[in-house]
Amino acid sequence: MVSDDAATPADYGYDDDQHGYLHVCSKCFQLYERDRPDGLNQKCNCQPRDTEKWPGADFNERAMLCRCCGLDVLPSGSRWAPFFCSACGHFVMAVDVWNRRLVIPIGRHSLMHTWLPSTVLPSPAKGEVNLDELAESLTATLQTVSQAMDQLWKWNRTIMKPNLKHLGLKGDIPLSQYIEAVAAEKSGLSTRLEAFEGLCRLFQPKPRARRG
Ligand SMILES: [Zn+2]
Ligand SMILES: [Zn+2]
Protein backbone atom coordinates (compact mmCIF):
# COMPACT_ATOMS: atom_id res chain seq x y z
CA MET A 1 0.00 0.00 0.00
CA VAL A 2 1.42 3.39 -0.94
CA SER A 3 1.12 6.09 1.66
CA ASP A 4 1.88 9.78 1.17
CA ASP A 5 3.83 9.95 4.43
CA ALA A 6 6.62 7.45 4.53
CA ALA A 7 6.64 5.63 1.22
CA THR A 8 9.63 3.40 0.62
CA PRO A 9 10.97 1.83 -2.61
CA ALA A 10 9.42 -1.46 -1.43
CA ASP A 11 5.98 0.20 -1.58
CA TYR A 12 6.62 0.60 -5.31
CA GLY A 13 7.57 -3.04 -5.82
CA TYR A 14 11.34 -2.50 -5.69
CA ASP A 15 13.45 -5.29 -4.19
CA ASP A 16 17.20 -4.77 -4.01
CA ASP A 17 17.93 -8.50 -4.23
CA GLN A 18 15.98 -8.93 -7.46
CA HIS A 19 16.31 -5.51 -9.08
CA GLY A 20 19.79 -4.35 -8.09
CA TYR A 21 21.25 -4.59 -11.62
CA LEU A 22 18.38 -2.84 -13.39
CA HIS A 23 18.68 0.59 -14.96
CA VAL A 24 16.22 2.91 -16.71
CA CYS A 25 17.28 3.56 -20.31
CA SER A 26 17.21 7.27 -21.14
CA LYS A 27 16.46 6.57 -24.82
CA CYS A 28 13.67 3.96 -24.88
CA PHE A 29 12.75 4.18 -21.15
CA GLN A 30 12.68 0.41 -20.78
CA LEU A 31 14.58 -1.36 -18.04
CA TYR A 32 17.87 -3.11 -18.74
CA GLU A 33 20.51 -4.75 -16.60
CA ARG A 34 24.27 -4.28 -16.32
CA ASP A 35 26.95 -6.57 -14.99
CA ARG A 36 24.94 -9.52 -13.70
CA PRO A 37 27.38 -12.23 -12.52
CA ASP A 38 25.39 -14.87 -14.43
CA GLY A 39 25.57 -12.79 -17.62
CA LEU A 40 21.80 -13.00 -18.15
CA ASN A 41 21.32 -9.27 -18.40
CA GLN A 42 17.86 -7.99 -19.32
CA LYS A 43 18.02 -5.93 -22.51
CA CYS A 44 16.14 -2.77 -23.38
CA ASN A 45 14.84 -1.91 -26.83
CA CYS A 46 18.11 -0.25 -27.84
CA GLN A 47 20.12 -3.44 -27.42
CA PRO A 48 20.24 -6.63 -29.47
CA ARG A 49 18.02 -9.29 -27.91
CA ASP A 50 19.34 -12.62 -26.64
CA THR A 51 18.85 -15.41 -29.10
CA GLU A 52 18.19 -17.96 -26.36
CA LYS A 53 15.41 -17.89 -23.82
CA TRP A 54 16.38 -17.85 -20.15
CA PRO A 55 15.62 -21.04 -18.22
CA GLY A 56 12.03 -21.06 -16.95
CA ALA A 57 11.06 -17.78 -18.63
CA ASP A 58 8.45 -17.23 -21.35
CA PHE A 59 10.49 -14.23 -22.50
CA ASN A 60 13.69 -12.60 -21.31
CA GLU A 61 12.48 -9.89 -18.99
CA ARG A 62 12.84 -9.84 -15.22
CA ALA A 63 10.98 -6.68 -14.36
CA MET A 64 9.24 -3.72 -15.93
CA LEU A 65 7.58 -0.52 -14.81
CA CYS A 66 3.77 -0.30 -14.78
CA ARG A 67 2.81 0.39 -18.39
CA CYS A 68 0.33 3.04 -17.28
CA CYS A 69 1.91 5.14 -14.51
CA GLY A 70 5.56 4.07 -14.82
CA LEU A 71 5.87 4.28 -11.02
CA ASP A 72 5.75 0.66 -9.86
CA VAL A 73 8.18 -2.18 -10.52
CA LEU A 74 6.37 -5.31 -11.69
CA PRO A 75 7.64 -8.86 -12.14
CA SER A 76 7.91 -9.88 -15.79
CA GLY A 77 9.07 -12.79 -17.95
CA SER A 78 5.90 -14.86 -17.65
CA ARG A 79 3.06 -14.78 -20.15
CA TRP A 80 0.80 -14.38 -17.08
CA ALA A 81 2.58 -11.26 -15.82
CA PRO A 82 0.27 -8.25 -15.53
CA PHE A 83 0.99 -5.04 -17.45
CA PHE A 84 -0.19 -2.78 -14.65
CA CYS A 85 0.27 -2.03 -10.96
CA SER A 86 -2.73 -2.80 -8.83
CA ALA A 87 -4.19 0.75 -8.93
CA CYS A 88 -3.83 1.14 -12.72
CA GLY A 89 -4.99 -2.47 -13.24
CA HIS A 90 -8.26 -1.66 -11.50
CA PHE A 91 -8.78 1.42 -13.71
CA VAL A 92 -8.15 -0.68 -16.83
CA MET A 93 -10.54 -3.44 -15.77
CA ALA A 94 -13.21 -0.83 -15.07
CA VAL A 95 -12.90 0.47 -18.64
CA ASP A 96 -13.16 -3.06 -20.05
CA VAL A 97 -16.21 -3.84 -17.91
CA TRP A 98 -17.87 -0.52 -18.77
CA ASN A 99 -17.42 -1.25 -22.48
CA ARG A 100 -18.29 -4.93 -22.01
CA ARG A 101 -15.36 -5.88 -24.24
CA LEU A 102 -11.57 -5.89 -24.24
CA VAL A 103 -10.37 -2.32 -24.80
CA ILE A 104 -7.07 -2.39 -22.86
CA PRO A 105 -5.64 -5.83 -21.99
CA ILE A 106 -4.32 -6.42 -18.46
CA GLY A 107 -1.67 -8.88 -19.70
CA ARG A 108 -0.39 -10.91 -22.65
CA HIS A 109 -2.28 -14.14 -22.17
CA SER A 110 -5.73 -14.35 -23.76
CA LEU A 111 -6.99 -16.37 -20.78
CA MET A 112 -6.34 -13.34 -18.55
CA HIS A 113 -9.42 -11.77 -20.11
CA THR A 114 -12.01 -14.50 -19.84
CA TRP A 115 -13.91 -12.54 -17.17
CA LEU A 116 -15.07 -10.19 -19.94
CA PRO A 117 -18.69 -10.71 -20.95
CA SER A 118 -17.91 -10.89 -24.69
CA THR A 119 -15.40 -13.75 -24.31
CA VAL A 120 -16.60 -17.14 -25.54
CA LEU A 121 -15.51 -19.93 -23.22
CA PRO A 122 -15.35 -23.64 -23.85
CA SER A 123 -17.92 -24.82 -21.33
CA PRO A 124 -18.41 -28.59 -21.20
CA ALA A 125 -21.31 -28.00 -18.79
CA LYS A 126 -23.21 -26.32 -21.59
CA GLY A 127 -22.77 -29.27 -23.88
CA GLU A 128 -21.37 -28.48 -27.29
CA VAL A 129 -18.71 -25.88 -27.81
CA ASN A 130 -19.01 -23.70 -30.86
CA LEU A 131 -15.42 -23.96 -32.05
CA ASP A 132 -15.85 -21.25 -34.68
CA GLU A 133 -17.10 -18.78 -32.09
CA LEU A 134 -14.37 -19.78 -29.67
CA ALA A 135 -11.64 -19.36 -32.31
CA GLU A 136 -13.06 -16.00 -33.38
CA SER A 137 -13.15 -14.77 -29.78
CA LEU A 138 -9.58 -15.89 -29.06
CA THR A 139 -8.29 -14.42 -32.33
CA ALA A 140 -9.96 -11.09 -31.56
CA THR A 141 -8.40 -11.12 -28.07
CA LEU A 142 -4.94 -11.94 -29.42
CA GLN A 143 -5.19 -9.16 -32.01
CA THR A 144 -6.31 -6.66 -29.38
CA VAL A 145 -3.45 -7.70 -27.07
CA SER A 146 -0.86 -7.46 -29.84
CA GLN A 147 -2.01 -3.99 -30.97
CA ALA A 148 -2.34 -2.85 -27.37
CA MET A 149 1.25 -3.86 -26.56
CA ASP A 150 2.52 -1.39 -29.19
CA GLN A 151 0.30 1.34 -27.79
CA LEU A 152 1.43 0.57 -24.25
CA TRP A 153 5.10 0.96 -25.17
CA LYS A 154 4.23 4.22 -26.88
CA TRP A 155 2.54 5.37 -23.68
CA ASN A 156 5.52 4.19 -21.61
CA ARG A 157 7.73 6.69 -23.44
CA THR A 158 5.12 9.43 -23.09
CA ILE A 159 4.75 9.04 -19.32
CA MET A 160 8.39 8.30 -18.43
CA LYS A 161 9.72 11.52 -19.97
CA PRO A 162 7.74 13.83 -17.64
CA ASN A 163 8.27 11.44 -14.69
CA LEU A 164 12.06 11.66 -15.07
CA LYS A 165 12.03 15.38 -15.78
CA HIS A 166 9.91 16.10 -12.75
CA LEU A 167 12.23 14.05 -10.54
CA GLY A 168 15.25 15.90 -11.95
CA LEU A 169 16.83 12.70 -13.26
CA LYS A 170 18.89 12.62 -16.43
CA GLY A 171 20.69 9.98 -18.45
CA ASP A 172 20.64 6.27 -17.76
CA ILE A 173 20.10 5.77 -14.04
CA PRO A 174 19.91 2.78 -11.70
CA LEU A 175 16.31 1.68 -11.11
CA SER A 176 16.98 2.04 -7.36
CA GLN A 177 17.66 5.76 -7.86
CA TYR A 178 14.48 6.23 -9.88
CA ILE A 179 12.27 4.38 -7.39
CA GLU A 180 13.86 6.16 -4.41
CA ALA A 181 13.01 9.48 -6.07
CA VAL A 182 9.45 8.30 -6.83
CA ALA A 183 8.97 7.18 -3.22
CA ALA A 184 10.34 10.47 -1.85
CA GLU A 185 8.10 12.56 -4.09
CA LYS A 186 5.16 14.04 -2.21
CA SER A 187 3.34 15.92 -4.94
CA GLY A 188 3.51 17.10 -8.50
CA LEU A 189 4.36 13.82 -10.16
CA SER A 190 1.58 12.67 -12.48
CA THR A 191 -0.78 10.71 -10.35
CA ARG A 192 -1.87 7.29 -11.47
CA LEU A 193 -5.31 8.62 -12.37
CA GLU A 194 -3.85 11.36 -14.55
CA ALA A 195 -1.59 8.81 -16.22
CA PHE A 196 -4.59 6.60 -16.80
CA GLU A 197 -6.54 9.43 -18.41
CA GLY A 198 -3.66 9.90 -20.84
CA LEU A 199 -3.52 6.18 -21.55
CA CYS A 200 -7.26 6.15 -22.29
CA ARG A 201 -6.87 8.98 -24.80
CA LEU A 202 -4.34 6.83 -26.65
CA PHE A 203 -6.80 3.92 -26.80
CA GLN A 204 -9.78 5.98 -27.92
CA PRO A 205 -10.95 4.99 -31.37
CA LYS A 206 -9.94 7.57 -33.95
CA PRO A 207 -12.92 9.36 -35.46
CA ARG A 208 -13.48 8.19 -39.02
CA ALA A 209 -12.71 10.72 -41.74
CA ARG A 210 -15.87 12.01 -43.31
CA ARG A 211 -16.41 11.36 -46.95
CA GLY A 212 -16.97 14.45 -49.03
ZN1 LIG B 1 16.94 1.54 -24.41
ZN1 LIG C 1 0.43 1.95 -12.44
Rg over CA atoms, rounded to whole Å, is 19 Å
- Strand-residue fraction? 5-15%
Please state the average pLDDT score.
84
Structural domains: how many: 1
Folded structure, characterized:
The structure is a single chain. This protein is mostly helical and 212 residues long. The protein has one domain (9-199). The chain contains 5 helices and 5 strands, in the order H-E-E-E-E-H-H-E-H-H. A 3-stranded antiparallel sheet has the order 2-1-5. Helix 3 (131-166) packs across helix 5. The chain is globular and about 55 Å long. The chain binds zinc ion (ZN) (2 copies). One zinc ion (ZN) binds next to loops.
Q: How are the SSEs placed, and which strands pair?
A:
Elements: H1 16-19, E1 22-24, E2 31-33, E3 63-65, E4 73-75, H2 86-99, H3 131-166, E5 173-174, H4 175-184, H5 192-203
Antiparallel strand pairs: 1-2, 1-5, 3-4
Helix pairs in contact: 3-5
The structure holds zinc ion (ZN) (2 copies).
Any key phrases for this structure?
5 helices; 212 residues; 3-stranded antiparallel β-sheet; 36% helix
Briefly, what is this?
The chain is mainly alpha-helical and 212 residues long. The protein is built from five helices and five strands; from the N terminus they run H-E-E-E-E-H-H-E-H-H.
